[in-house]
Amino acid sequence: MADTVTLHVVPHSHWDREWYRPFQSFRLRLVELVDRVLELMETDPGWTHFMLDGQTATATDYLEVRPDAGDRLRELVKAGRVAVGPWHILMDEFLVSGETTVRNLQLGRALSAELGQAMPVGYLPDMFGHISQMPQILSLAGLRDAVVWRGVPSAIDRTAFAWEGPDGSSVRTVYMATSYSNGAGLPTDADDLARRTTKIRRDLEPFSPGADLLVMCGTDHLFPTPGLPKALEAASENGLRYRVSSLTDYIAASRAAQADGLPVWKGELRSGARANLLMGVVSNRVDLRRLVARAERELERYAEPLQALAAPHLAPGLLDIAWRKLIENSAHDTVCACSHDEVTAQGKVRWLEALQIAEGISERALRHLARSVSAPPGPSLVVWNPSPRARTVVVEADLEVPAEWGSLVAVDVATGERGAVEELSKAEPVALQLDLPMPMVVQAMEMIQGRQVGEEWVNAIEVPLISDERIEAVFRVDSVPRGFIDVEAEVARMRQIAEDHAHAMVSLTALRPSRRRLLIEVPDVPGLGWTTVRLEEGTAESTLATPVSPDASLLPRVVDGGDVGDTYNYCWPDDDVFVDSMEIVGDEIVEDGRLRKVRRVTTRHETIGDIDWTLASVAGAGSVSISMEWVNQREDHRVRLHLPLPGKTTESYAGGPFSIDRRGLDAEGGPSEVGLPTFPARDTLSAGGLFLVLPQVTEYEIVGDGTEVALTALRCTGVISQGPMATRPMPAGPAIPTPAAQCPGPQSFSYTLVVDADREAAIDAVLAPPRAVAVHRDSDGSLASRRSGPTIHGRLRLSSCRRLPTGELEVRLWNPSGQTAGGGVEGGTKVDLLGQPLRSSPGGLRGHEIATYRITT
Asked: CA 34 to CA 13: how far, in whole Å?
């Protein structure tokens, strides 16, 4: 250690917005905390700094209750005495999309600016590991420094290291080797303070050879200690200096002292060498993993692009609300589901709200297309392609087709290209037929809400026969409203008929138009655009490869074993028995067409019971999508699907936020946690020649000495945290029961096995399938029948496409390859995450680069 040492004491409170108590319960304490901070700052000049945990949620949640304190808080933030941001909330990095992380950072920076200024540090204190692309995300937001705790491997033995992303971006990173709580509850008594800081110095000495030591004076939901600054000032002597400091000041001081020779780490931080990684959060509450993925994907791939490119008149404020819900739910204890059951229930409501907004905007945008595209008379549909690449797709649609027509062909209105059509079913024309007394008919009509009855819309009411004995009434109904009908006038008409023929019986018939459920091949739909096809009588051969046969032999081995762990960590029972005995008890070919093949299989598992499997393959996809449904009636167990690998392997390549991460067969653990090689995979997983597309973040492990991959389909546990267990000797939280985490009742899980297809096309086929809607017969033709979105060159993946308040179009892409990918957005200006112009890389996007473009339209 240096002769003169400065202890940078950073007062803070780590604020979990919700965890073992719900949000509003914790907010009551938050209000008391910030009240106390403001009072100390205003009455004791020794309190020169307090950090509100690197997030703006601590401030905005407080100000929602104490709006009158806004000026006081803003004055302290502007003066640098209270630090907020740069995040809006401290998220889990692996369980939310890269786009959610970017929007979190952008929202945090914007809210920080409104409060005064953002702390210019990528503070990541308690995340359960760190994604490989975090250095690039921080760099693109103008942040040069990160601060981390969990996940740092044993190879890093200093409190400062250079952390590199896969693209080469680097941030100087402070490693809080003894946690963000090493100075929690510092005493004000001189002797006690000396003893405590002696231990802090001794613990930090192996990691901090310089003269500046970081003392994080706080922990979870901890209040500041009155009188502490004076106690620290009085204790400074004999080459030891105590300083109420900030992360910014500590970083500046330590950067000057450690300018050269930093150790380098490239990629993700997922080690349990010195701190718990708590890896089991990936596999608890698999139902929430599905919901999060649905909400993010609906917002990112459908609602925002459709609003931006097809229906900009739809209220963008609703999109902001949906994003706010997702960002709030990205809080690590919320999305990790290592929380009270009330927290996960309230989180589920927020995810559902975001999903409902996104689905509503997507539906309305498609309906706008249906009423606006130019199309000839007759049955036609408009097809939206959320992929950045043009592609030939197969869509399912329910269309009104003349009853006398036979075989059908789809013809692109703009290009004349033809696609095959297969009929799945015909709708019965008679939806309802009843004989009722006249008063009951009038009563029923008065109950009609507008024109809609259930899922049907009333488009016309005809009364062809009226007599004292019998009245015939025909209701023309359809799945969509067509034309105009004055419901009040029709009710009045029926009421008058009832008065004139009070004793007549009414023969009531509801007739649908002649409708068919069809599979339609639509050639060459533009990327991020649409095309319109009309149906004609005729035939056409499909140009797509034949669907892969969904053979029952593709079913995985289902392995059920015990789990005596908790929401943070899996743990095997001492007497564990793995059960994989399963037999086929039902097998049915549901569809066997040229455009789609579907098979349903029922198996009986010895401990799980009956499992219903659906295996489906679409022409041109080169893959089989496999889904399973069953009813979970057991507790404290784990269900994994074991898939054989074509070749033995020693590594895997798993998708992550903006990344493809290479991993070996081992994981680094330490004295506080066994290093289990169970990892998260987002979107894709490749190992030993096997390639999977995953619709939700999924836990996987390479097992069988490199010959199988195990996917966790369900993990059930009944407590947030518990005491000593084989995989973790100490608790990670309170021992609060979580019966909902036992996941009782109906369950489902799915994945897609890619057999023979272009991988980028296979990913789009599963994660961004096309959507189609019947063109309204009264479409005004104000939009072209075919339109391309922004032109995107190169084999790049889309993260977002949205319309900014300025009217500009913003497109974010990333390069999944380690090689430079020629391309980008044609006519776009490259910007960073704060909207500042950047110079485009020669030859296109460098390997693993994230690139944002803005286009003036």
From this structure: 10
Determine phi and psi for 93, rounding to 5 degrees: -85, -25
Question: H or E stretch including 375?
Answer: none
Which residue from 388, 327, 321 is spatially nearest to 357, judged by alpha carbons?
321
- Beta-ladder partners of 627: 614, 750
CB-CB contact of 808 with 854 (8 Å)? yes
| pLDDT-derived band at 451, boundaries 50, 70, 90 | confident
Positive/negative CA dihedral, 431, 433, 434, 440: positive
Distance (Å, whole) CA 428 – CA 456: 14
- Buried-exposed string 577-587: b where 16+ CB fall within 10 A, e elsewhere: eebeebeeeee
Question: Which secondary-structure segment (H or E) carries 735?
Answer: none
Looking at residue 67, what DSSP letter applies? G
Q: How many CB atoms lie within 10 A of CB 378?
A: 15
Biggest CA–CA distance in the chain, Å, is: 111
Q: State percent of the chain over pLDDT 70.
A: 99
| pLDDT exceeds cutoff 90 at 685 | yes
The DSSP bridge pattern shows strands 122-124 and 145-148 to be: parallel
Report CA dihedral (488, 491, 492, 497) to the nearest 10 degrees. 160
Sign of CA dihedral 97, 99, 105, 108: negative
Helices (H) and strands (E) in the chain, counts: 16, 40
Integer Cα distance of 707 and 681 in angstroms: 18
Nearest by Cα to 663 from 699, 715, 714, 623: 699
Angle in degrees, 0-180, between the axes of helices 341-372 and 286-297, rounded to the nearest 10: 30
pLDDT tens digits for 527-576?
A: 999 999 999 999 999 999 999 999 999 999 999 999 999 999 999 999 99
pTM for the complete prediction?
0.93
CA 528/CA 325 separation, integer angstroms? 26
The answer to whether the CB of 529 falls within 8 A of the CB of 791 is: no
DSSP reduced 3-state for 761: helix
d(CA 399, CA 427): 10
Average pLDDT of 30-45? 97
* Residues contacting 484, CB < 8 A, separation 6+: none
pLDDT for res 454: 76
How far apart (Å, rounded) are the C-alpha atoms in residues 821 and 819? 6
Six token digits for residue 367: 């309906």
315: tokens are 């209220």
**Residue 313 to residue 371: CA distance in whole angstroms:** 14
CA distance 613 to 629: 7
Interhelix angle for 23-43 vs 57-65, to 10°? Answer: 90
For residues 293-304, average pLDDT: 98
Give residue 664's Cα distance to chain centre: 26
Query: What is the pLDDT, as a whole number, of residue 652?
Result: 98
Residues in the chain: 857
CB 612 within 8 A of CB 686: no
DSSP-assigned beta bridge partners for residue 642: 557, 710
Q: Is the peptide bond before 481 cis (omega within 30 degrees of 0)?
A: no
The phi, psi pair for 809, rounded to 5°, reads: -95, 130
Going through 619-724 in order, the beta strands assigned E by DSSP cover: 623-632, 637-644, 652-656, 659-663, 679-687, 690-703, 708-715
Sign of CA dihedral 760, 761, 763, 767: positive
Give the Cα separation of 681 and 263 in Å (integer): 28
Task: Give which of 690, 726, 731 is closest to 711, Cα–Cα.
Answer: 690
720: Cα separation from own chain's centroid: 23
For residue 110, what are the CA distances in angstroms to 65, 238, 810?
20, 44, 17
Q: How far apart are the first and last CA of the chain?
A: 60
Q: What is the spatial distance between Cα 50 and Cα 18, in angstroms, rounded to a whole number?
A: 21
What gap in Å lies between CA 246 and CA 214, rounded to an integer?
9
Task: State how far the Cα of 509 lies from the Cα of 674, in Å rounded to an integer.
Answer: 69
